[in-house]
Amino acid sequence: xxxxxFLVFVLFWSLLLSVGVQAQGExxxxxxxxxxxxxxxxxxEYFAPTVELSFDGDKQSYSSTQAEFVMxxxxxxxxxxSFDFIHYGGSNEGTPYAVGxxxxxxxxxRMFVKMKSVSGALKIGTIDFSKE
Length: 132
Description:
By secondary structure, the protein is α+β, with helices and mostly antiparallel strands. The protein has 3 helices and 6 strands, in the order ααββαββββ.
Protein backbone atom coordinates (compact mmCIF):
# COMPACT_ATOMS: atom_id res chain seq x y z
CA UNK A 1 0.00 0.00 0.00
CA UNK A 2 2.74 2.45 0.94
CA UNK A 3 4.69 1.56 -2.18
CA UNK A 4 1.65 2.17 -4.40
CA UNK A 5 1.00 5.51 -2.73
CA PHE A 6 4.64 6.49 -3.20
CA LEU A 7 4.57 5.54 -6.91
CA VAL A 8 1.35 7.52 -7.46
CA PHE A 9 2.87 10.48 -5.61
CA VAL A 10 6.06 10.39 -7.72
CA LEU A 11 4.06 10.01 -10.93
CA PHE A 12 1.83 12.96 -9.99
CA TRP A 13 4.78 15.28 -9.26
CA SER A 14 6.58 14.19 -12.44
CA LEU A 15 3.48 15.05 -14.43
CA LEU A 16 3.22 18.48 -12.79
CA LEU A 17 6.89 19.23 -13.45
CA SER A 18 6.65 18.19 -17.10
CA VAL A 19 3.58 20.43 -17.56
CA GLY A 20 5.57 23.34 -16.06
CA VAL A 21 8.48 22.79 -18.44
CA GLN A 22 6.10 22.49 -21.39
CA ALA A 23 4.40 25.74 -20.37
CA GLN A 24 7.78 27.49 -20.26
CA GLY A 25 8.56 26.10 -23.70
CA GLU A 26 5.29 27.46 -25.02
CA UNK A 27 6.11 30.90 -23.58
CA UNK A 28 9.34 30.90 -25.59
CA UNK A 29 7.74 29.57 -28.82
CA UNK A 30 7.18 32.99 -30.48
CA UNK A 31 10.74 33.99 -29.56
CA UNK A 32 12.06 30.76 -31.08
CA UNK A 33 10.06 31.40 -34.27
CA UNK A 34 11.37 34.98 -34.57
CA UNK A 35 14.96 33.78 -34.19
CA UNK A 36 14.47 30.93 -36.67
CA UNK A 37 13.08 33.44 -39.16
CA UNK A 38 15.93 35.88 -38.36
CA UNK A 39 13.29 38.54 -37.76
CA UNK A 40 14.69 41.22 -35.50
CA UNK A 41 11.39 43.10 -35.79
CA UNK A 42 9.33 40.16 -34.47
CA UNK A 43 11.92 39.49 -31.75
CA UNK A 44 11.84 43.13 -30.67
CA GLU A 45 8.13 42.78 -29.86
CA TYR A 46 9.23 40.74 -26.83
CA PHE A 47 12.02 43.09 -25.68
CA ALA A 48 11.90 44.86 -22.34
CA PRO A 49 12.48 48.64 -22.54
CA THR A 50 16.17 47.95 -21.81
CA VAL A 51 17.83 44.80 -23.14
CA GLU A 52 21.27 43.46 -22.30
CA LEU A 53 22.93 41.87 -25.35
CA SER A 54 26.16 39.93 -25.11
CA PHE A 55 28.26 38.52 -27.94
CA ASP A 56 31.19 36.37 -26.75
CA GLY A 57 31.43 38.28 -23.49
CA ASP A 58 31.08 41.78 -24.99
CA LYS A 59 28.04 42.85 -22.97
CA GLN A 60 26.10 46.09 -23.49
CA SER A 61 22.69 47.44 -22.57
CA TYR A 62 20.47 48.87 -25.28
CA SER A 63 17.04 50.39 -25.59
CA SER A 64 14.59 48.03 -27.26
CA THR A 65 14.88 49.99 -30.52
CA GLN A 66 18.68 49.89 -30.49
CA ALA A 67 18.61 46.18 -29.58
CA GLU A 68 16.40 45.51 -32.60
CA PHE A 69 19.05 47.04 -34.91
CA VAL A 70 21.87 45.15 -33.19
CA MET A 71 19.97 41.88 -33.67
CA UNK A 72 19.19 42.80 -37.29
CA UNK A 73 22.91 43.26 -37.90
CA UNK A 74 23.72 39.97 -36.15
CA UNK A 75 21.13 38.07 -38.21
CA UNK A 76 22.46 39.66 -41.43
CA UNK A 77 26.00 38.46 -40.62
CA UNK A 78 24.96 35.12 -39.06
CA UNK A 79 21.70 34.00 -40.62
CA UNK A 80 20.45 30.91 -38.81
CA UNK A 81 20.83 27.53 -40.45
CA SER A 82 19.08 26.06 -37.43
CA PHE A 83 17.94 27.12 -34.00
CA ASP A 84 16.16 25.51 -31.10
CA PHE A 85 15.91 25.89 -27.37
CA ILE A 86 17.40 22.86 -25.62
CA HIS A 87 16.69 23.73 -21.98
CA TYR A 88 14.12 25.76 -20.08
CA GLY A 89 14.34 26.81 -16.47
CA GLY A 90 13.58 29.43 -13.90
CA SER A 91 15.45 31.21 -11.16
CA ASN A 92 14.51 30.94 -7.48
CA GLU A 93 12.56 34.18 -7.96
CA GLY A 94 10.57 32.62 -10.82
CA THR A 95 12.32 34.40 -13.69
CA PRO A 96 12.15 32.11 -16.73
CA TYR A 97 15.11 31.51 -19.00
CA ALA A 98 16.00 29.29 -21.92
CA VAL A 99 19.23 27.98 -23.39
CA GLY A 100 19.41 27.34 -27.10
CA UNK A 101 21.75 26.23 -29.84
CA UNK A 102 22.06 28.67 -32.74
CA UNK A 103 23.85 27.43 -35.86
CA UNK A 104 24.66 30.32 -38.19
CA UNK A 105 26.75 30.66 -41.31
CA UNK A 106 29.73 31.89 -39.24
CA UNK A 107 29.59 29.23 -36.56
CA UNK A 108 27.57 27.72 -33.76
CA UNK A 109 26.53 29.66 -30.68
CA ARG A 110 25.11 28.78 -27.30
CA MET A 111 22.30 31.24 -26.72
CA PHE A 112 20.89 32.24 -23.33
CA VAL A 113 17.62 34.19 -23.12
CA LYS A 114 16.38 35.49 -19.77
CA MET A 115 13.00 37.11 -19.30
CA LYS A 116 12.01 39.75 -16.79
CA SER A 117 8.68 41.06 -15.60
CA VAL A 118 7.70 44.45 -17.05
CA SER A 119 4.32 45.82 -15.96
CA GLY A 120 3.10 42.29 -15.23
CA ALA A 121 4.23 40.85 -18.58
CA LEU A 122 7.32 38.78 -19.31
CA LYS A 123 9.75 40.47 -21.69
CA ILE A 124 13.27 39.62 -22.86
CA GLY A 125 15.80 41.24 -20.55
CA THR A 126 18.97 39.43 -21.63
CA ILE A 127 20.27 37.65 -24.72
CA ASP A 128 23.73 36.14 -24.58
CA PHE A 129 25.51 34.53 -27.54
CA SER A 130 28.65 32.49 -26.83
CA LYS A 131 30.52 30.95 -29.75
CA GLU A 132 31.12 27.24 -29.34
